[in-house]
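Tutorial sheet, problem 5. The two components below are modelled jointly, 443 residues in total.
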Amino acid sequence: MKIRLLIISVLLLCTSAFARGKTTFEQFGELKGLTVLMDVFMNELLADPQTEPFFSVADQDHVKKMLADQFCELLDGGCIYRGRSMAESHQGMGVNRAQFNALVECLQRAMKKQKIPFAAQNKLLAKLAPMHKDIEQAATPKQAPKKVIKAGGQW
Amino acid sequence: MSKLRTTLSTAASLMLLASNCTHASGKLLLTGGVNSVEGASGGGLTPWATIGSYATDDEIGANAFYTQASSQQFSLRTFGVVVGLHDRVELSYAKQSLDTGSAGSTLGLGRGFTFDQDIYGIKVKLIGDAVLDQDSALPQISIGLLHKRNADSVTVQSIGAHSARGTDLYVAATKLWLEYSVLVNLTLRASKANQLGLLGFGDATSNHYRSQLEASAAYLLRRDLAIGAEFRMKPNNLRFAREDDWADVFVAYTPNKHFSLTLAYVGLGDVATVKNQNAWYLSANAGF
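Model answer (structure tokens):
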């Protein structure tokens, strides 16, 4: 019966973790905090051999500004992201799953360095994770639609 | 002895195969799951829909693990390997030895009698991505089987089991709710196994599959640390000894992608006539 008590305490611990005063945006230090976070994030991206080739050739200040705006919008911080869509901006880059995950880990390291609470980190990641579809699908340039009608006349 | 040697060389060649192919490190930390006591990746007691190792869709990866679970009377040692192919198919092998300690003499088997079994597993991911598909309620769903061969067929039949071999079939659904840092798994298993199969399969008069529900919930405290609880229904086939459902609480620690440690406290209930067993469970996992 000791085990039941233990399970209940674990569940209670889980639920208590949901109750928080600050909004996630505030936990990130608002737009100011996000701007600093992007500097740390970019350094991580340039230090990781899996992500470095993509970011060393980019206009880093522009990327940081776009990411700060995008994250601010995702965290309901009142910003509007006016950059290109994820599919557009990653078109033809050939990003694979391992590289996408490497980027996530760079972001995790940066957030840890900035002492952003782990639960708040996950709230942001939950909004970013589905973007893997656009980012990875853009790996190969979109092919022109194939012609359906063959010479034989089948439709 | 020669069997052990064969097992070890199989394990070694599987690992070599995996390490030669690719350096699999694509998946996010802790998302490879740990190795269940039956080999397949998942929680400690139950297989999840996860595909073991950190290999992504264009990688191959492998884990080797050792697990020791000790209750007042019994001690279960398990070692094995898991190979993850392209985050789609998982192959697993586990070797289990249950030392009955002083209970062995009570059962008339002799003190320290051990039951041994081999478990061969395959799991295939059907749909979904437990980690990345955060915009969808659809979990990651996999199906799998665990084929178990008990080495002590005469003994398990003498205690009333129908057979020394059996195959568990399961479907598992795993979902990480990253927004809440919570992972939930549900597994539905069809099984004839008595105490995982260590006491054989079925009973003398009937040898039917029974459906069992298994559930795990984990809370991520840090990137490298998770706590949680599990529940696993068990069949109760044997007449001579009652078999109870299992439950545990666990903490899993993964300092990096090559190593993880899981500590759990498991309520086993009655095991082979010995009442109210609780076990400490420690599992170490090395990944490639």
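Marking note: The helical segments of chain B are 2-21, 103-106, 153-158. Full credit if you identified this.
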